[in-house]
Design brief:
By secondary structure, the protein is α+β, with helices and mostly antiparallel strands. It has a single domain, classed as Trna Endonuclease, Chain: A, domain 1 (3-Layer(aba) Sandwich). 20% of the residues lie in helices and 36% in strands. A six-stranded mixed β-sheet has the order 1-2-3-4-6-5, with helices on both faces. This is UPF0102 protein GS601_02950. GO terms for molecular function: nucleic acid binding. Belongs to the UPF0102 family.
């Protein structure tokens, strides 16, 4: 394979792989999973994949009708272009999530009869060196040199027609 002369990455640079534990997207998913557990949810799967896409979190609320939530987590820095991730959840993305969730339910038929919904979690990420304090009502965590804060959790954020 020919090297791209315009892409020069020194060997000393450590670029985390997308599924590396310190990758901020995964850190955001971990934060939301912890928050859900603190609210009595059980995490069934994290980063469940199939040929249609990926479900960030699949959670079950054992109480109250045994609800299943497919949670899309958007982790963003303070200066982002897409409304903290909300603009990235386009109708095309929603359809892809719906198809992926259908595939999940085919693979887990014991869960298929339960009520399901699509939730969205918005996580703010900043370097730990930035000494701003999070809002006291927010769920925050300092990990791997970052401070992650769950800014918004939107239950039943969208439905599929």
């Amino acid at each position: 394979m020919a090297q791209n002369p315009f892409l020069i990455v020194p060997e000393s640079v450590d670029i985390p792989a997308p599924h590396h534990p310190t990758h901020v997207g995964i850190l955001g998913e971990n934060l939301v999973a912890e928050w859900l557990r603190s609210h009595d949810w059980q995490i069934l799967h994290q980063r469940w994949t199939c040929r249609f896409g990926e479900l960030d979190l699949v959670a079950q609320l054992p109480k109250e009708k045994s609800l299943i939530a497919f949670v899309e987590v958007k982790t963003r820095s303070q200066r982002n272009w897409d409304g903290d991730g909300l603009l990235a959840i386009t109708p095309t993305k929603q359809a892809k999530l719906w198809k992926t969730a259908q595939s999940f339910l085919i693979n887990y038929p014991d869960l298929a009869a339960l009520p399901c919904r699509f939730d969205v979690a918005i996580v703010r990420c900043r370097k730990a060196s930035a000494s701003k304090q999070g809002h006291k009502d927010c769920f925050s965590q300092s990990v791997a040199g970052y401070i992650l804060t769950l800014q918004t959790y939107i239950p039943d954020a969208f439905t599929h027609d």
